[in-house]
Amino acid sequence: MKRVVVTGGGGQIAYSLLFKIASGELLGSKEAIFLSILEIPQAVSSLQGVVLELQDCCFPLLQGIRVGSNPEEIFEGAEIVFLVGSKPRSPGMERKELLQENGKIFIEQGKALNISANRKEVVVLVIGNPCNTNCLIALSHAPDIDPFRFHAMTRLDQNRATYQLAVKAKTKVSDISQMTIWGNHSSTQVPDFHNALIRGTRADVVIQDKNWLETDFIEAVQQRGARVLKERGKSSAASAAQAALDAMRALLFPSENLFSSAILAKDNPYGISEDIVFSFPLRCVRRGKMEIVPNLEWTDFMKKKIRESEKELIQEKNEVM
Ligand code: NAX
User: Fold this and answer.
1) Which of 59, 120, 182, 289 is the most buried (most CB within 10 A)?
2) Predicted confidence (pLDDT) per residue in 75-130, tens digit
């Protein structure tokens, strides 16, 4: 039985994610699951309603549910962890303030993971924003866990970019591969149109429109979240939950496929500053063990943008450390 933890269980991403996990979409139709869900004390009672719904789904794989506000208790024996819960940015709040507010959450949760999680097995995916730097904070406070077991989610950006390329090339999303993201999960992220493939051919060879690739495409990916917010009146939730599921499956099941995820940049082959959590093209070598894919080419345009994203992450790190 796998022990899966979701934090921010009363929030909108969790409302989609918890049901996907319990139904078997994460680990397949044979692996039994024990779900532990963390919330702040004020939200635990509304989370109880979600628990009732999970029970009423009669998921055959779901062996038990535990709910609470104490991270050390909820992370007990954790093998798969989705750190979704964090404070949203309130009106007028500066990014620096958000970083500091959420930083406290990830200090506490990093420490609790270090004490309670299954340290040899655990894989942690940070979704709560600003996810790269939150992830850096969490792994810095879990010294007994291999830091490479911590990831920050850039999979939603990858999925959004895949869709944009498919539409432009008038093809199916399944024809797109190697679509990855470099850098920060922020407006400085760099969707890699140079190494992405459309039916096995480089995207910038198939789409011979440099201007579209360097401006409209990148902006469409960067601004997609803002568009969802404008149209729906709420931020992305179901697509974020799906991305979290895709991301975790990529981290758990070895494959030749490339995907993006932000990871501690230590010993990376691209000369990125080593003490930040940076999104790279990765490959899963074995459960929880990733390789940063080496020797990918950057265009001059990408090089400049990737350095800007790196600079932003160094600045975020300096603000919280
Ligand atoms: P919600 O505000 O709906 O839910 C967040 C939940 O977290 C709330 O129920 C809150 O009570 C809980 N929470 C706050 N502090 C907590 C703590 N210390 N321990 C446990 N739970 C705590 O937000 P939702 O839409 O679910 O988004 C969650 C996070 O995902 C946000 O930070 C959001 O910015 C981030 N996102 C990240 C994405 C990514 O691609 N990395 C995309 C989607 C999303 O924007």
Assistant:
1) 182
2) 999 999 999 999 877 777 777 888 888 999 999 999 999 999 999 999 999 999 99
Q: What is the pTM of this model?
A: 0.97
Q: What is the 3-state secondary structure (H, E, C) of the chain?
A: CEEEEEECCCCHHHHHHHHHHHHCCCCCCCCCEEEEEECCHHHHHHHHHHHHHHHHCCCCCEEEEEEECCHHHHCCCCCEEEECCCCCCCCCCCHHHHHHHHHHHHHHHHHHHHHHCCCCCCEEEECCCCHHHHHHHHHHCCCCCCHHHEEECCHHHHHHHHHHHHHHCCCCHHHEECCCEEECCCCCCEECCCCCEECCEEHHHHCCCHHHHHHHHHHHHHHHHHHHHHHHCCCCCHHHHHHHHHHHHHHHCCCCCCEEEEEECCCCCCCCCCCCEEEEEEEEEECCEEEECCCCCCCHHHHHHHHHHHHHHHHHHHHHC
Domain ranges of the chain: 2-152, 155-320
For residue 271, how far is its CA from the centre of ligand 1 (angstroms)? 32
CATH code reported for the domain at 155-320 = 3.90.110.10
pLDDT digits (tens, 9 = 90+) for 32-68: 999 999 999 999 988 999 999 999 999 999 999 999 9
So which residues are the catalytic ones? 185
Cα–ligand 1 centroid distance for 135 (angstroms) = 14
- 2-152: which CATH architecture? 3-Layer(aba) Sandwich (3.40)
